[in-house]
Design goal:
With 265 residues, the protein is of the alpha/beta class. The chain has a single domain, classed as Vaccinia Virus protein VP39 (Rossmann fold, 3-Layer(aba) Sandwich). It is 43% helix and 15% strand. It has a seven-stranded mixed beta sheet with strand order 3-2-1-4-5-7-6, sandwiched between helices. The radius of gyration is 18 Å and the shape is globular. 40% of the residues are buried.
């Protein structure tokens, strides 16, 4: 199955905010419920330990990504880690909810905060430095833009980690239908409660339809490890250590594609 560069509706500038925020809220609920990125915590910890980073800049955070769970699995050894949530179209309400939830109800020593301004992953503000991460978002970019994201990190001498659950396989596309059905059923449990979310989910099901469309397209757009290695070979830097592959905690679990790069020495 060849990679297809197609659009996802929620990433378009013309996409209404209620659709984009509704979709990222649903994905955030799924992250918290299923903890799908929990297996890669050792990879992240190893990258932090190898570089001495005590700050993480998450790009394309959507509704907050997997950080409520991952922040409890990582340690700064000390001091605690500072985790920035950023996005080109920041869902500030979701970011504020995660920041408040972490401060009240989690036992993590690490601190999650949000950057309120738009952040372009190809041109990250200089004040945001540390280990850059992207979860389920690198596939949005064609190869030349993906290379620009990696090159921007290299130019800033920042480490970077790319992690993708979607894969170009019929089995993963099939799982996407199951995930959308699960989130459709669980919408009543998404907080904060909004009547508008129920309207656009159950009466006029725009949010689940966009979620399904974008989920299938995400699978078709994802990069395989060899394709990520090809992008890395075109970077103008030879003093970085790059690791790429597919990581799975067990034989029955769906593997997570990853690319991690950090300066040598």
């Amino acid at each position: 199955m060849r990679r297809i560069q197609f659009i996802e509706i929620h990433e378009q500038p013309w996409c209404p905010s209620f659709v984009r925020d509704g979709l990222t809220d649903a994905l955030q609920f799924g992250f918290n419920l299923l903890k799908i990125y929990a297996p890669i915590a050792p990879l992240l910890q190893s990258a932090l330990d190898s570089t001495g980073n005590r700050s993480i800049v998450d790009m394309g955070s959507g509704g907050g990504g997997p950080w409520l769970d991952l922040s409890r699995r990582l340690h700064g050894n000390p001091p605690p880690l500072h985790i920035w949530l950023t996005d080109k179209y920041p869902n500030v309400g979701a970011f504020q909810k995660i920041e408040a939830f972490q401060n009240i109800k989690t036992a993590s020593e690490n601190h999650i905060a949000f950057y309120p301004d738009s952040v372009d992953a190809m041109n990250v503000p200089l004040e945001l430095n540390g280990l850059r991460t992207m979860f389920t978002s690198f596939h949005h970019f064609p190869p030349e833009d993906g290379r620009a994201i990696l090159q921007n990190a290299v130019d800033a001498r920042d480490s970077i980690g790319i992690f993708e659950v979607p894969r170009r396989s019929w089995s993963t596309i099939g799982l996407t239908f199951g995930l959308v059905l699960l989130l459709f059923v669980c919408t009543l449990g998404i907080r904060p409660f909004r009547w508008s979310r129920l309207f656009w989910t159950y009466l006029i099901p725009i949010i689940p339809l966009v979620l399904l469309f974008d989920g299938v397209v995400s699978c078709l757009r994802t990069y395989r490890p060899q394709e990520l290695r090809e992008i890395v070979t075109k970077l103008t830097a030879n003093d970085y250590q790059w690791e790429t592959g597919e990581y799975s905690k067990s034989a029955s679990a769906s593997p997570i594609t990853y690319l991690i790069g950090y300066p040598r020495g």
